Amino acid sequence: MRVGPVEFASPWLLIGLLAAAIPPLLHLLSRRPARREPFPTLRFLESSAARTARRRRIRQWLLMALRCGLLAVLAVAAARLIVHTSGARRAGGPVAAVVVLDDSGSMAVANRFNEAVSSADRWLTGPGAPAAAALILATQPREPAVLTGDLHALREALAAVRPRPRRADLAAAVAAAAQLLAGSDLPDRRIYLVSDLQAASAEGLDVAAATAEAAGAALLIADAGGGRTGGTGLTDLTVEGRRVVDQPLAIAGRLHNNGTAPLRATVRLEVDGRSVQRRIVTADPAGAPAAVRFEHTFAAPGEHTGRLVLEDVDDAILDGALVFAAAIRPRARALVVAADGAAPLHADPGRVLEAALDPRTDPSMPWSLRVTRTDPASLDDADLRQADLVVLADVPAPSAAQAAALDRWVAAGGSLVWFAGPGVDVDATNRRLGPLLGGALGGPVGRGDPALGAVALAEVAADHPFWAGVDLGGDAVGRILAYRHLAFAPDEAAVTLARLASGAPLLVERRHGRGRVVVCTTTASMAWTNLPSVGMALFVPMLERAGLAAVDPAAAPPAWTAGDPATIDLPSRAAAGATVEILDDEGGTIDTARVTVADGRPVASITAGDAPGLLRWRIPGGDEGVIAVNAEAGEVDLRRIDGAALAALVEGGAVLG
Hints:
- By secondary structure, the chain is α/β, with parallel strands linked by helices.
- Helices cover 23% and strands 32% of the residues.
């Protein structure tokens, strides 16, 4: 019901105004006229009693008026008074309205969303219902919408909406509503925005409000948050480390407390459906999220899944859980290619490499690398097929056939580490391996004797992903010396990982196809350097990373964000053009995609599901796997736009309770 610029969203509740008559009725019903009896002795008090009665009667009437007014105000509040903005057209004719419904993840807290849908539904019913209306969801503001007179169908569509684990874009949704109304011929245009007014969703709303005013539309806001606080959620899942058997993975997240008091909560790590660890976390009220971190090592290869779960929290947001998936690779196979010799351990590059790649004294201890060794002359395709990492140490030069096989093997995803040495034939190596190594080798630099001079390591590219997780701040790195090295001029595609004080490169990496090549310009033994002894902090991680990178080259994210594009890495045997099905937790197909090839590997591009959880992918009659989907991170932060900012955004607009 509307009268001029004033409207009631629930006019039938104005019947409550009748309650204002209750105090007078009670007064009238309780009156009992007193019988008058003369008392001569009190006749002198009559004039004083009359004056007192008049004062008491005034107070009673004022109190009754106050009670009546209070009941009337409550009735008007229940009917939800709307005062239209200055930008609205007040022709009093038929109404064109667009309902902008906040369907983001934050609206799933408590009963917010159901209340929001009820508010929107009331706007579409009764005598004040619009002549034409449309529905725009704030998480999908760019979805086409049209004004329709079929309000019954629109209400059915409204009732079918469910919160999505995505951030709302209120500004874009209001702007889309204004654009839609600008094309309407109806004189009275309104935008009904129903939202919890989450600050993260309200960026740019001031501009959208101005757009609505320019379109002659009244922007009316229903506060679904109601000023309520509380709600606890987990966000920002990370899984760091090599996804290889016996390699520790750091699994972390952050706890967000929206309440007004500090929160002490237990977070549980589940792996493959069973609880493995717990952490107690304390989070400040409405402050910075508190970090929680676990470490877990997988002992078996294959697809594994896990969850971080909030325990015993009544107001958990989005189920208080984060999911992840990890494809754990088998142990990397390392092949050392070096001549058999009678040299002592420190001078035999093959034996030094074997010890560095597998330093265990107890073979039963878990380790992520399996090491074998072969003679340079024996290296062939069969050896390469059984290896993830190949280390050439002081090899004179591979044959043309060996060089071609190495090129193909690296391009397919293998990791090659090449070490210099006194036995290297520089010219032959340049001819056969130069393009693969990514540069041209030169002659030896230095005398090869620490007593006759040495060059110190001066610079390590600590920010390069190759060194991720390696402690490069110790004294040992600064004490690495090269007594002799081969000159090397890397090409533009190569990256220098470590450089000597002379400016000469010591370690250089080059990507080739899906694999990588690392060139070390000094020896793997201690003939030309102290790198294998003093520099173990650099030497062993270099070899380990090269090997593990071959089996875990570019791990997919542990989880995707709901509604975002996602790329599934498929086994190399997946055929281009094959169909990939995406299945929900009940086995139903929710999406399909075709296998394509990107950077030499088969992939499938999909859209992550709308519901957080674990989805399965499968190639009919072939491989299958798991992907994890979580809500958008910001949806656990329930901080609201403040009242002053809201008033500035929608000048003259009514904020409904």
